Amino acid sequence: TWAGIIARRDSTHAAHPTITTAKFSIGMSYEGRELYMMKISDNPEVDENEPEVFFNAITHAREPIGGEVLLETMRRLTEGYGVDTFLTRLVNDREIWFLPCTNPDGYVYNQLIAPNGGGGWRKNRNDLFDPDFGVDLNRNYGFQWSFDDQGSSPDPPDNTYRGTAPFSEPETGAVRAFVN
Length: 180
Prior knowledge:
Number of strands: 4
Number of helices: 5
Strand order of the largest sheet: 1-2-4-3
Distance between the termini: 29 Å
Low-confidence stretches: none
Largest sheet: 4 strands, mixed
């Protein structure tokens, strides 16, 4: 669940405060949910001159396994730190950023329409045109946005609707601002 994803980050930080930041928001979703990020590193509160890695998941609301993979990766890194030399080196030599749920509105909507799992909603919950349309966040980034209509659609009801402009959605705008 959305609450479960938040709780896992909180418990991870509580158990490993010396190598994690507390969750922090990089922005808000269309419906006003925080886009919570977390960093794992040997000096998590310091911007070190190390390679940075950014992982995000649940861009498509009906693909929750990506969020589970990130939460498991976070668990392995934190629990393996100081125990496993490879994992310890990864944490010591990098700044690793995690955004397990890029599309919290669509994810919560799937929980509402299919509480036992299996919700098929893919997009965010932008209701600019109709409450059942939304924007495919994965098609809303700027690189070759609207290049053609093969990989994305200009039609709001389509599952691959790309939005009105590159980064038109608050979720993709927040990711861009964070990365920049």
